[in-house]
Amino acid sequence: MNKKWLPFKSEKEDVVIKKHSLKLLRQPHAEPLKVIHISDLHLGFHYSYDDLIYHIQIINDLHPDLIIISGDLFDNIDYYQNPEHLIPLLKTLKAPLGVFFSYGNHDQRIHQTPRINRILSASHIQLLTNTGVLLNYDSEPIFLGGLDDVINSKGNVYQTLKNRPEDMMTMMIVHEPDYADFVEQFGIDLQFSGHSHGGQIRIPLLGAPVRPQLGRKYVRGLYKVGKMTLHVSPGLGTTHLPIRLFCPPEITLFNIK
């Protein structure tokens, strides 16, 4: 795979695969839990079927146990003459513990969530909106929660966690990363976020001059927020302008021990 990337526009072949190891599981395991985190594809805004095919192939070749999509899967669903044609592609995402998604601000603001919900359901992608599920990894229970979007909707941590058993590894999907300052008080081990696009346009020595609401403090990569680990994905797509500068798209693989 060609990892070289043009500074003024990242093409689909320029995606970076970044790997992290974390110690969060409560029980010993022969193999780590492999979690793929992606975000912000912005389907409908300069993100093509070919881009989706290419990125799904990379993800499946990594053989994850679990796939997390932390919002803004869609941008302008009407861009596609028949958005339901995305279903056969999205169905090819493979992970034995499932593929999970929570809404971002762009998903919500296009006001087509019923249609998006039908596409997700037909694609075997489980939508988490202020709810959580129990996963079983090698006989260890794991709680995965997902907030609805915080900016354009009604993300509710209390509702999401109301059925969580005590003393259990807990992961949370929250589109906006800066909300971690509130979420960390609830005993979350790992929060998956996107939204910021890593800045999308970064200037050497200065960083990202433009940062979105609730994506200004935590911009990309790993952070420690209290006792919680936060990961902010730079995303796979772009927003507003189809340009990335010193900020290539990323697929992140976690080996959780």
From TrEMBL:
Gene Ontology cellular-component annotations: membrane
Any one Gene Ontology molecular-function term assigned to this protein's record: UDP-2,3-diacylglucosamine hydrolase activity
Record-given protein name: Metallophosphoesterase
Xref: PANTHER family: PHOSPHOESTERASE (PTHR31302:SF25), TRANSMEMBRANE PROTEIN WITH METALLOPHOSPHOESTERASE DOMAIN-RELATED (PTHR31302)
Coiled coil: none
Domain of life: Bacteria
Gene3D superfamilies: 3.60.21.10
Record domain Calcineurin-like phosphoesterase: where: 33-198
Listed GO biological process terms: lipid A biosynthetic process
